[in-house]
Amino acid sequence: MQVLKFGGSSVANATAISRVLDIIDEAVKKDKVVLVSSAISGCTDSLIALGSGTQDKDQVWNALLEKHKAIATRLFTGDQRDAVYQTLRVLFDELYQADGADCQTFGELFSTRILAEKLHCDGLNTLWIDSRDLVRTKGGVVDKPLTYGNIKKVVESHPEVDVFVAPGFIARDENGHVCTLGRGGSDYSAALYAAALGAQTLQIWTDVPGIMTTNPKDVASARTIPAISYEAAFCLADHGAKVLYAPTVGPAMESNIAIAILNTFQPKASGTIIKALPKKGRGDWLGIASAKAENGLSQLCLVADGRIGQARLDEVLARLAKASIQVASSRLEGDDHALIYVPEKDNKEALRLIHHDFFDTEGMTDVWLAGYGKVGKALLGIIEKTGARVNVKLISQHEADNEAFFADMLQHGAPNAVFVDCTDSETISKWYVPVLEAGLNIVSSNRRALSVPYAEYAEMKRAARRSHRFLRYEASVGTALPILESITMSANSADEILSIEAVVSCTLNYILTSGLPFDRALERAQEIGLTEKDPRNDLFGRDALRKLLILAREAGVPLEAEDVEVEPVDGSKASSDQRFVASLEKDSTSPNGYRASIRLRKVDSSHPAWNLKGTDNAIVIRSAFHPTPLVIQGAGEGAKMAASAVLNDILR
What proportion of the chain, given as a percentage, has pLDDT over 70? Predict the structure, then answer.
């Protein structure tokens, strides 16, 4: 048996509910499921307003009904839609007649009725069960023996059912009156169902990627905690971390059922596992919870995974004092957490300061390296030689996809670790978005991965922004030359790029400046490993095209490969006064506002590319702010140079 609980944002609309249905479809393949759901996002607040009489009753009632009908309209058709409309109408009529205090108990009835009917329509043997009859309280607390017996009895009496759907949050007291388990109580409901049934897993699906080191709304660099003990999770939740309702931990801990905190919108991300973990003799800080306290103060709760002492707390207090943040009071609580009270106006500054000291600058940078070719080996050599604070966790020696490598990284990669792509793979880019969404950063020298269709490239960039992680790839063009950085600086400062001329094909520059006949120079380039496996790819400008796409996109131009006019190199017409130039020029008549081409061009002694020799690269950038062109040139080939650029991207 599996118990899956979904929060209000996970069922906020028809699109969100469709994600829930996909997750349930996958779960049912493993075992039977109890689905516990909250009310749709914002519903409970509206119901409380309805019950309090502070807003127009008919207006609030109608708005809620229409919101739920809109969801049903998207999810159902024909007779099924009419049946759901009728079910909702009956429930809403009951709501209209309900006493004020009882109004807030209806939201979960609405959401779960819709979910149960949709699962049934999708072909799953589904049964809606009423938590009001199963979860019972006495004296204001859950009567666990009675509740567990009720749940077990109803589930065991329906062995044919694949999915049981139960409303969270609501229960019934010893007098038969409907009551609630408190705001956030749907988590607690799910834990009660899991404990009653001895579930293999309890999953809490929400809109954040697990329990985080602090609230990401307060500190953008907050990261997911991969695993945490029951006690530490309870402590964070009890002191203000809103991702989990604190009482949820009790039933799961008593039954030794691990709790997985997962993100409905990133279902493949690992999230956080809450389970039995021994305390360390000397604890490391795990996370910081924040809550409003009395007398204009905020309470910060610092939680560790083991024992801490006054000296550890004094270190934190000294750091706050140095930043001129006044601490009203502080104390150790137990042996694994401390409370610090600061003025409410200083709360976020104190949070950011402590979080930075604990989590943003500590220890080594974990690196997961894909690609054990020339650049990958050179990178490892530089790390060893320089003693750079880099911890290489795992190396994939394949130059292509390695499913086991990525599965291991996504499961065990620490937040803020770095995935380094030193492969030449054309398909490995499919992992970039999942890696970023899992909380890892990316550094790449693989130009094939960055020259994918623009929509895929843009999604990578969006994933990096959404996850507050970096995606860096300076080594993909010009090896160790600061080409992309220069373009980015211009783009970020609203400087209009007028043109870019790039001589970035090391192979063709070597051939054209070698002094040898073209055919012999090409053979020599093959012998020393400069060409691609099929040298026609060099002659057709494939490598230069990839680099031009990256350059253009860094400048903010959504260039596609088909937008570039490429003239393949004809060796019989090539000469030493020519260079293979990839160019991007402002052109108001072109769809993107720029004209792009790659071709052999004659240059004279006034052109920066005239003096290029061997595998040198050059780029000429003209912009509105700088009438004199910016020229960057230097060595464009070399594993050690590429590796040094990769390492700089990792550490900066």
Answer: 98
